[in-house]
Structure formats: structure tokens, C-alpha cells
Amino acid sequence: MSGRLFVVGLGPGGADARTPEAEAAVAASTDILGYHPYVARLSLLPHQTAHASDNREEIARASAALDLAASGRTVAMVSGGDPGVFAMAAAVCEAIEHGPETWRAVELTVVPGVTAMLAVAARAGAPLGADFCAISLSDNLKPWELVEKRLRLAAEAGFAMAFYNPISRARPWQLGRAFEVLRECLPGTAPVIFGRAAGRPDERMRVAALDEARAEDADMATCVIVGSAETRRVERAGLSPLVYSPRSVGGKR
User: Fold this and answer.
1) How does strand 132-136 pair with strand 160-164?
2) What is the pTM of this model?
3) Do residues 102 and 124 both lie within one domain?
């Protein structure tokens, strides 16, 4: 009697950034699960039931979704951005691995979405136009020493970096420390993009040099992109600066 589970990426903000595949998956579902603000983005149909929960209940949320799907329901687990980037797809897969055999019989479809770093990068130009990486600055699930090691190695290897979970009330110091680490490895002129709430009405974008970047300019709704030593900032009269990472490195064209 197994049903189906969609793990859906809703994109960074408004419905205009949501894919048709995501819209169809939500419309086909009887039950919608997710973090409260993500579920609130949706206009549910009369036959649909919302199951909103706290952001720190990922495995419990995944387990509830799999139980519903295993009972024959069609379920949508919604995430902001892309569900495979620091979001619910990994939690669902982990729950399936360690859960009952009935969960493995659930038909699982992961529906991609536009993740925050791509939305912010598009607003700025092309800061991820060359090699890049994404790093979560949260040390809830990994030691901070590992985060610092990855920051140093990524900077030394010439990667532009996108930071997820940069700062919160419970983690107020990690972004500032990350900037300190990067100032040891990168030029002070390296561009830093603070992209808050990309695609939403309260969107705010700011570009600063690494030497001037301040942790206070970010919150949990912010994705921070730090350019590599090769990343360029192009000033434009009357317009916001254009930031891009050239694809050519070391004289190659």
C-alpha cells in the first residue's frame, strides 16, 4: 500500500522562481510537510493537509513524511531553495537508510529548485562563474575545526565560496571567525556579497571588500559569497557593482 514522497525545492523566494515540476509535485500531494515559513509560501487546496514543524526537527519530519507515504498517501516534503543543498533530501535518505523496511518501498522523487547561492550570484553577476564550493558555517553537525580547515583549503585552491547558515542568535561568532581565516589566505580586496532574502520583497544585496566585510551584515536569511583571488569587481556609474569570476586562470583563454 506504499504511496509516494516528493522532496520539493521551492526556490529562494517567490513563486516566480519555482519550477513547473515543483508546482506539479505540490499540487499532486495530499499532505505537505516542511518548516513553518516554507509551508506558509504555499496556497493549499481544500483536500490538502499541512504539517508544519520547527527547523530543528529534520529527522522527525522525514520520518513522519515516510510514515504517511508508506500508508498510501502522496506526500510533499518542501524545502526552500534546492532540497539537496543543506536541506531535507539528505535527511529523508538518512531516515530511509536507518528506518523500517516499509520506508524503502516508498517511491521517492527529489524535485530540484533554485538554491540561494545561485539566486544571489545571479543578482551580482557571475561570482560563481569559475570553480566554486558551498560550505555551511553551522557547527551543529560537524566540528568547527573542520570548517576552518575547509575554508583555508578552499581559499588556497582558488575556489569562490558560498556560505550557508552564516550566523544566528545561537551561533553569533562563526562568520566573523571565517572572515578572519580568509583574510590570512586571500587579498583584502576579494569581493564579499551579502545576499539577503533573494527573490523576496525584503531582498537586500551588498558588496564589500573582504577587509571591510562585517559579520553584522548577515543573518540566517543571508547567503554570503566570497570571491577567490581571481574574482573581479567592476564599478558601474549609477548602478550596483558587477562581480564575476573569470573562467580563464593562469593566462589561459
Assistant:
1) parallel
2) 0.93
3) no
The CA distances from residue 223 to 121, 169, 252, in Å, are: 10, 16, 31
- pLDDT on residue 248: 85
Considering the domain boundaries, does residue 128 fall inside one? yes
Q: What is the CA radius of gyration of the chain?
A: 20
Residue 249 lies in a domain: no
Q: Are 116 and 72 in contact (CB under 8 A)?
A: no
Distances (CA, A) of 179 to 82, 137, 169, 176, 237: 26, 11, 18, 5, 29
Residue 104 and residue 139 in one domain: no
- The distance of Cα 43 from the centroid of its chain, to the nearest Å, equals 23
Q: Residue 163: how many CB atoms within 10 A of its CB? A: 26
Q: Taking Cα atoms as reference points, which of 239, 153, 244, 137 lies closest to residue 190?
A: 244
Based on the domain organization, do 105 and 168 belong to the same domain?
no
3-state SS, residue 30: coil
Residue given cell 504511496 in the structure block: 3
Give the list of residues 6+ apart from residue 133 with CB closer than 8 angstroms, or none. 154, 159, 160, 161, 162
CATH number, domain of 233, equals 3.30.950.10
Render pLDDT for 120-134 as a digit per residue (tens, 0 to 9): 999 999 999 999 999
- Return the beta strands (E) in 24-158 as ranges: 31-35, 49-53, 74-79, 107-111, 125-126, 132-136
